[in-house]
Write a structure and sequence with these properties.
Radius of gyration: 45 Å
Structural class: alpha+beta
Strand order of the largest sheet: 1-2-3-4-5
Order of helices and strands: HHEEHHEEE
Shape: rod-shaped
Number of helices: 4
Length: 202
């Protein structure tokens, strides 16, 4: 309202002949022009302020979405990690169960996704397996009774076990107990992938 008060004062000066009409018009124009400029500045400032507020709102919304997404991904990765650990733990427990029930010491190797069967030290099966493996390597032959057991009992039981939910898509390997690493048999989901004694006839 300051500009209009100034114009009113100018009018009083004009009415009392203290200023001329020309001076009045000139000063009045200057005051009105300054009011227009001031109004435009205010509108421009308000417009910039509103735009800035909108930009900040958009930025905050994007930040919230990004942070929320990262949090969800973090939680999801933790759940996957926990689930993965639970599955591995369950497989190891299953390997322990087989160890307790058979003449094999069974261990699960997560990195290879493999159940390794090694004949327990001091068991009859270890002696039979080792002696026949040695015979096979030296003379290209083994005892017929061993092959019969291998084909009638060992292979079917391993095939059945390979269909177990916890063993699915994992390898089952019988490993030579003499060195703990030479593979004698490999079965995946019921299919024989490798059999050291496959070429032996009964």
């Amino acid at each position: 309202m300051g500009g209009f008060d100034d114009i009113r004062k100018l009018k009083e000066l004009l009415d009392t002949n203290l200023i001329t009409q020309v001076e009045f018009d000139k000063q009045k124009k200057l005051i009105l022009d300054s009011l227009i400029i001031e109004k435009n500045d205010v509108e421009e400032y308000n417009s910039k302020s509103y735009n800035q507020i909108d930009e900040e709102k958009r930025h905050n919304k994007i930040s919230i979405i990004v942070v929320g997404s990262l949090f969800v991904i973090f939680l999801f990765s933790i759940l996957i990690s926990v689930r993965h650990d639970q599955i591995i733990s369950a497989k190891k427990e299953f390997a322990t169960e087989i160890t307790n029930e058979t003449d094999y010491k069974v261990r699960y190797r997560p990195t290879k996704k493999t159940f390794e069967y090694v004949a327990k030290e001091g068991t009859d099966w270890q002696s039979i397996l080792e002696s026949n493996t040695e015979q096979y390597e030296e003379y290209d032959s083994v005892k017929t009774s061993f092959i019969r057991i291998w084909r009638n009992n060992v292979l079917p039981s391993i095939k059945i076990r390979s269909h177990n939910k916890l063993v699915k898509n994992s390898k089952i390997e019988i490993v030579d107990s003499r060195d703990g690493k030479t593979k004698l048999l490999e079965i995946v989901n019921g299919d024989v992938i490798y059999d050291k004694f496959s070429d032996i006839e009964e």
